[in-house]
Amino acid sequence: MEFRSALKNLPKWERVLGVEKRGPTFAPGGKMPANVRPNWDRLEADLRGKPPLEQVQKVNNFFNQWPYKTDAAVWGVEDYWATPQEFMQKSGDCEDYAISKYYALRSLGIPASQLRIVALKDTLRNLGHAVLVYIDGDRAYILDNLTNLVLSHQKLTHYDPQFSVNEEYLWRHVKPVARQAGK
Fold first, then answer.
1. Domain range holding 60?
2. What is the CATH number of the domain that holds 33?
3. What would the pLDDT profile of 60-81 be if each residue is shown by its tens digit?
4. Domain count of the chain?
5. How far from 127 is each of 41, 77, 121, 135, CA to CA, in Å?
6. What's the pTM?
7. Of 55, 56, 158, 183, which has the most beta carbons under 10 Å away?
8. Ramachandran region of residue 182, left (φ > 0), alpha (ψ -120 to 50) or beta?
């Protein structure tokens, strides 16, 4: 089950939203690093007018090329949410991949209502993790920095969502409690 609310008390995400609102990384003339811009421009031109799921797949592959780096290694802090520009310059961890993919897909015209950055618990590895989810009708597809495959959420049963965000809302995810017979 999920409960939607207004965005609040998420300062790391709110900082990213503010930076991107003031100067979108993916806009023409945006703050994208010069060494990345030609590759992005070629991909963007190729993806214009293509089906959304193809866009999702290619954006996932594009950003999964960056090496994984912990926030401690890059920023000297335990948890830092990087803007796409920061990620493309220094790389980052799981939520940084998700944020960059989110803004790339938004720049291609996919509405915020179809995208969510999901903070979750990976129950196999017993670790916190983050992914981007693309929602198409009643299907949700996972863009994960751990694989270039874009899989249905139904195939990733070891992912236990905790909360998700986009630029419009915050959702809290809770497992329904089974009711006992007779109660």
1. 2-173
2. 3.10.620.30
3. 999 999 999 999 999 999 999 9
4. 1
5. 35, 18, 6, 24
6. 0.93
7. 56
8. left
